[in-house]
Amino acid sequence: MNSSVFNLQAISLSLALLGILGAFVLLLMTAIVMWRYRNIRLSSFQWNLRSWRLRQLSAIATLFFLAMAASYWVIHGPPGWIYLLVAFKTGTWWFRGILSRRA
User: Fold this and answer.
1) In whole angstroms, what is the distance from residue 7 CA to residue 24 CA?
2) Which residue of 4, 10, 55, 56 has the fewest C-beta atoms within 10 A of its own C-beta?
3) With contact defined as beta carbons under 8 Å apart, do 40 and 61 qualify?
4) Which residues contact 38 (CB under 8 A, 6 or more apart)?
């Protein structure tokens, strides 16, 4: 009988549910920000506020996907690579947004 401290299948299933739910919440929050600031002029205060909120969401998404990748790597799960790629993609978008920001 194989006695283990934790059940890898249960942890993998809970991580999968957490990943799907977290990605959905991040997409929903992005849609809410885009909807709230849909009719604004370029270079206005509201435009800068929208950009600031999107940069914040991108930073949160990057940290979330990095945490998911690390969690899958702890249990040696293959979706860790996918989460790492998504984290790098959101991280580069965030970094590009920070660098291209006008003072």
Assistant:
1) 26
2) 4
3) no
4) none
Query: What does 46-59 look like in DSSP terms, one character per residue?
Result: HHHHHHHHHHHHHH
* 75 vs 11: CA distance, rounded Å: 8
Does the pLDDT at position 44 exceed 90?
no
Give tens-digit pLDDT for 49-94. 998 899 899 999 999 999 999 998 888 888 889 999 999 999 898 8
Token pair recorded at residue 30: 């992005």
Give the model's pLDDT for residue 29: 95
Reported for 91-96, long-range contacts at CB under 8 A and 24+ positions apart, including other chains, are 91/58, 91/62, 91/66, 93/58, 94/55, 94/58, 94/59, 94/62
Tokens of 57: 């969401």
The residue assigned the tokens 């401290």 is 5
- Give the total residue count for the chain: 103
